[in-house]
Design goal:
By secondary structure, the protein is of the alpha/beta class. Helices cover 44% and strands 15% of the residues. The protein is built from 16 helices and 13 strands. The strands form two sheets. A seven-stranded parallel sheet has the order 3-2-1-4-5-6-7, with helices on both faces. It has a six-stranded parallel sheet with strand order 10-9-8-11-12-13.
Length: 356
């Protein structure tokens, strides 16, 4: 009988990054796919199953519908996952998580109950404890029996935290997916995309207003339309703070293929998303990152992205970013791996699942 592997995923980026892994798990194990329901509407969930041809989940929970705050989501999922296991007689040999969403925090009660945990995307640290994601991924790493990391930097980080056993560098799962759907042909460089959805930005009116001012300066400087993705939390705060969008146009969220096409044809993007430093690097589109810290410093070292200080609107500070944008970029992407991450993950799970 094949070992039973349960995957628990719940948000847009994780479905994308796990899509190839899901398929290989189906081929090699008794794979039970659980959708936590943290993201549940069409543009944040359903469309990605359709576009990436991910099979339907075996079970769907309702984390995002019945719980709005992070602590409510953690509480709901911690109870419901055990009820599901008991009701359906699910006895996993390994439970697999990817990323740093609230969904991964159910690794804590699962670990306490003796389940074996695997964390993909381990070892990332920004050292910014304002970020819920920083806390989530750190906790999940310390609950995990086997950890897959994207880059040797993260291996070293885990060693600093005294995590040394069953940690493996596998590359980034986004590489094979992005190359599969990567647009081709001449880049039009006809717009600028703004992707701001982190509480470290949208909960602070000064930072939000500086980001909007910067984006409007970009519109003026480059003579291009600026479009800003309409995330729920950010939109509420824009209204709350009576923010002036200026020349910025709010647009609905994009499917994965449309996102890739849009980013491919942007002159550059402005994004506080962690994953927003990955696909653009492969697409050779520069990224301005309005954050104080990043868990992907390889993107900055590889000349793929630039860290922008939005605690100020000092022209001398922002002009340095324009100087960076106006030159050619190396776009070194070795830090994203060789495109065989899913196969590496399956091989390592096979090697270790019976001995953990």
């Amino acid at each position: 009988m094949k070992p039973t592997v349960v995957t628990i995923s719940g948000i847009r980026p994780d479905f994308i990054r796990m899509s190839r892994v899901f398929k290989l798990l189906d081929e090699n194990f008794n794979h039970i796919l659980i959708h936590s329901g943290q993201h549940y509407d069409q543009l944040l969930s359903g469309v990605f199953f359709e576009e990436l041809e991910i099979r339907q989940p075996d079970y769907c929970l309702s984390t995002g519908k019945v719980a709005s705050t992070h602590y409510e989501q953690m509480s709901y999922l911690s109870v419901e996952i055990f009820r599901l296991f008991e009701r359906e007689s699910i006895k996993p040999d390994l439970v697999v998580f990817l990323g740093d969403s609230n969904t991964v925090t159910v690794s804590v009660p699962l670990k306490k109950e003796g389940y074996k945990i695997c964390h993909i995307e381990g070892g990332m640290r920004s050292y910014d404890k304002r970020m819920m994601e920083e806390i989530n991924r750190t906790v999940c790493d310390h609950c995990s029996d086997i950890i897959m990391v994207y880059h040797p930097d993260y291996l070293k980080q885990l060693e600093l935290e005294n995590i040394r056993r069953h940690v493996y560098v596998v590359g980034n799962t986004i590489t094979e997916i992005c190359h599969q759907f990567k647009p081709s042909g001449p880049k039009s460089n006809d717009s600028i995309l703004v992707d701001i959805h982190r509480p470290e930005n949208f909960k602070h009116p000064g930072r939000v207003k500086n980001i909007l001012e910067y984006a409007n300066q970009c519109a003026e400087r480059y003579g291009l339309p600026v479009r800003m993705l309409k995330f729920h939390g950010t939109s509420k705060c824009l209204e709350k703070y009576s923010c002036d969008l200026g020349k910025i146009q709010l647009v609905e969220l994009l499917s994965f293929r449309n996102y890739l096409k849009t980013v491919y044809n942007c002159k550059f993007i402005i994004s506080d998303s962690g994953t927003g430093q990955e696909e653009p690097a492969i697409l050779r589109t520069p990224v301005i990152v309005p954050r104080d810290f990043t868990e992907r410093p390889q993107s900055v070292r590889g000349d793929c992205s630039y860290m922008l200080d939005v605690n100020t609107n000092d022209p001398a500070v922002w002009n340095k970013s324009f100087e960076w944008l106006d030159r050619d970029h190396a776009f070194e992407t070795d830090w994203l791996g060789d495109g065989h991450t899913a196969e590496n993950i399956i091989r390592l799970i096979k090697e270790h699942i019976t001995s953990l």
